[in-house]
Amino acid sequence: MKDAMTQAPANLRHLLSEATACLRTAGVDAPQREARLLAAHAADTDLAGLLRIDTLPPAAHATFMQTLHRRLNHEPMAYITGHTGFWSLDIAVSPATLIPRADTETLVEAVLDHLPDRNAPLRVLDIGTGTGCLLLAVLAEYPQAVGTGTDINPDAARLAARNAARNRLAARAAMLCGNWADGIAGPFDLILSNPPYIPHADLNGLMPEVVRHEPARALDGGADGLVAYRALAAILPDLLAPGGIAVLELGIGQDSSVPAIMRLCGLHVLEIRPDLGGIGRALVVKK
């Protein structure tokens, strides 16, 4: 790769062709699209704007080469660009947090169906908020709601606060550093959580983008992947308001084990909602 691209090609089409070949060789999925996304980022435009560009200026070409090397090392695109889309929001990301996934939007869909009054003055708690994407997506849909996000990682809590400001929701969102809901007083009408749920032995089998770059602490669910759910089940009954619900993200194959844990702590399962791939993704429970 290095020998093939040591000089800046004058033609963007040639640059994209060479980059696509390098990404394909490195085993990056959708290499042509990835090359175009990197070029658009370097040129400070979008994919549509890239169609109007024939060459990259020297500074943009240097940025493209730097980011291409990062992507060839399987660094996620969102970490390279510094942001990603989630629901209707633009979410800043960093290596302190997991990158928001489209599958997690299933939780927002479940909330909207179970709490149909968009003007309800909900009190919301997001445990393990990460980027804040879940809490902020819900607050964007419920203009009278207020929410608190907690994360054990102070860098994540700070990023979530920046995302609240970035999406003009800071007045209704408090982002705190803390362990689970320690020191948090309920009750809450809605509790959200996308906890760590990957069994420890499975971590090294994840995609290199995940295992090399995303924070293991936010992925590792212990020996059976269920440690976080046991902790959540123990505190949810005391935190939920009468009639309130909790919506939790599930991992693959956890749509039987996690509901059983919740029932043991006196919680009633309302729904297990599948994502677009048919995987049970959003667990909805109440007292």
UniProtKB/TrEMBL annotation:
Residues 110-232 form the Methyltransferase small domain. S-adenosyl-L-methionine binds at residues 128-132, 151, 180, 194. GO terms for molecular function: peptide chain release factor N(5)-glutamine methyltransferase activity. Residues 15-82 form the Release factor glutamine methyltransferase N-terminal domain. Its EC number is 2.1.1.297. Keywords: Methyltransferase, S-adenosyl-L-methionine, Transferase. Transmembrane segments: none annotated. It catalyses: L-glutaminyl-[peptide chain release factor] + S-adenosyl-L-methionine = N(5)-methyl-L-glutaminyl-[peptide chain release factor] + S-adenosyl-L-homocysteine + H(+). PROSITE patterns: N6_MTASE. One of its GO terms (biological process) is methylation. Substrate binds at residues 194-197. Belongs to the protein N5-glutamine methyltransferase family. PrmC subfamily. Methylates the class 1 translation termination release factors RF1/PrfA and RF2/PrfB on the glutamine residue of the universally conserved GGQ motif. This is Release factor glutamine methyltransferase.
